[in-house]
Each structure stands twice: as structure tokens, then as C-alpha cells.
TrEMBL record:
NCBIfam families, A to Z: TadE_Rv3655c
InterPro entries: Rv3655c/TadE, TadE-like_dom
Protein name: TadE-like protein
Domain TadE-like, chain residue ranges per copy: 13-53
One Pfam family it belongs to: TadE
Top-level lineage group: Bacteria
Length: 119
């Protein structure tokens, strides 16, 4: 038995499906790129906090060291006690656009104070 196609059957379905799927794929790609951007910024915050705490523990300017390694717009805070130094780096990144909500990131590191006396 031979089947005949109905007039106007499946014509144009592929175009319609592509028109629906393409924006979804672009949105997914934007989400992935934004996630990678935020992850890289978090790693930079962790590195900046670690370097700031170590520098401050050695008696150097830890806030300056941390700010030089942190993402743009980050804030570096140094908290000290008698035995330790803690550096806290915070930043809000906006991976997609300035008018969209940002992603707040925070990293901290603690180092023991070093004796920097004359040897």
C-alpha cells in the first residue's frame, strides 16, 4: 500500500523547531560562560586572600598585595590577632551585563604571624 502525504503535513516543522531551540541553546551557552567567568573570579579571590594573608604575616602591606591579585572592584580587608592574620576578599561580579544582578563572591585566608626579627 502506498501512503500519500497530506498537503501541508510536516513542511516547515524543522524551521519552527530550530527557531525554538536556537534561543534556548544561546541561553544555555550564556549561562555556561557566565559560570566560568564567576568561577575564575572566585579563584582569583582565593589567590588574593592567600597572598594578602601571607604578606601581612611577614610584615608587608598585605592589603596592597591582595588588591593587586584580586579581580577588579574587589575589597580586601585584613583582620589581625596576636598570633594570626586573616585576609578577606569580597567582590560582586556581573558576568552578563551591568543591569543584571551580580554574583557576590567571598574568600578568606588565615596565616600565622611570622617572626621577622634579625637573624
Amino acid at each position: 500500500m502506498i501512503r500519500r502525504r497530506r498537503p501541508g503535513g510536516d513542511a516547515g516543522h524543522a524551521t519552527a523547531e530550530l527557531a525554538v531551540a536556537f534561543p534556548a541553546v544561546l541561553l544555555l551557552l550564556a549561562a555556561v560562560v557566565g559560570g566560568v567567568y564567576a568561577a575564575v573570579a572566585q579563584v582569583r579571590c582565593v589567590d588574593a586572600a592567600r597572598e594578602a594573608a601571607l604578606a601581612e604575616a611577614r610584615g608587608e602591606a598585605g592589603a596592597l598585595v591582595g588588591a593587586s591579585r584580586a579581580p577588579e572592584g574587589a575589597r580586601v580587608r585584613i583582620d589581625t590577632t596576636a598570633d594570626t592574620v586573616t585576609a578577606v576578599v569580597t567582590v560582586e561580579v556581573r558576568p552578563w551585563a551591568e543591569w543584571l544582578p551580580g554574583v557576590p563572591l567571598r574568600a578568606d585566608a588565615t596565616a600565622a604571624r611570622e617572626d621577622v626579627g634579625v637573624r
